[in-house]
Amino acid sequence: MKLKLLYFIGFIGLCSLNLNAQQNQTNLWLQYLGRAQLAESWRTTSVWQYRSYNLLTDSRLFLINNYVDYKLKNAEVQFGGGYMYLDIMPYNEFGEKRSIIEHRSLQQVTIGNKVSRRFSISHRFRLEQRFLFTDWFIMRARYLFSSRFKLGDLDNTKWSLIFKNEIRMNLDKERAFDSNRISAGVSYQLSKSISIQPGIIAQLEAAPIPNDYYFALKLRQKFKFRKNNAKPDIDPIGYSND
Questions:
Q1: Distance CA 92, CA 97 (A)
Q2: Which of 11-20, 58-67, 78-87, 125-134 shows the lowest mean pLDDT across its residues?
Q3: pTM value?
């Protein structure tokens, strides 16, 4: 199984190279997500992300995102809020790179739906306040649809297909549409608490900004800081909504 995973990662990488050939760049997206259940209804999530213009060395973005969710007791609904720090490193028209520091506060609602033992989906609605250059403020709304389809024997499978589609809209700019991010990949369960997810991400931007395509590799880890008699983690899609 692990050998098959390596083959798939290589295949996704080749697809990414082909997608980016027209733009002469191969974007990379590396991400770590750690999630801990603190109590029966409370959990915290930390996301660390690195993006580059090439396979590793030409840095494009670095972010840290931390938030807390509260789950309703009788419904698959979670309310959350948190903070995000970003270091964005774009090139200007002269080919010179600069660093833009951004701070974000965010509020979100996530609704999960376990359609069957094999298939589950979730909807996340997020509102974020973006602070750039200390005096540039943007309010943005995001809607993320996530799905997970388990492969093989449901009692023993370690493989799942992951698909996500996120639309981001500016609420206080003349151009409302910001971007549409579509991603697809697989998830392989390395252990009870750790999974790896290789895939491809396409970010469709409003003209004249060019579209971006990434080879993505994500590592996810689950922690438990709760009493033994607490209810199990509630997460219908295997915490794949980040």
A1: 6
A2: 11-20
A3: 0.85
Using DSSP bridges, classify how beta strands 27-37 and 212-224 pair: parallel, antiparallel or unpaired: parallel
Scored b (16 or more CB within 10 A) or e, 167-186 reads bbbbeeeeeeebbbbebbbb
Q: b/e map of 120-132 (b: 16 or more CB within 10 Å)?
A: bbbebebebebee
Rounded Cα distance, 77 and 71, in Å: 6
* Token pair recorded at residue 93: 């028209």
Residues 201 and 64: their CA atoms lie apart, in Å, by 19
3-state class percentages of the chain: helix first, strand second, coil last, to nearest 5: 10, 60, 35
Span 128-149, pLDDT tens digits: 999 987 668 899 999 999 999 9
DSSP 193-213: SEEEEEEEEEEEEPTTSPPEE
Quote the pLDDT of residue 25.
Answer: 58
Q: What is the pLDDT of residue 122?
A: 97
Listed residue (22, 52, 65) closest to 215, CA to CA: 52
Quick one: CA torsion of 222, 31, 45, 124, rounded to 10 degrees? -110
CA distance 213 to 28: 9
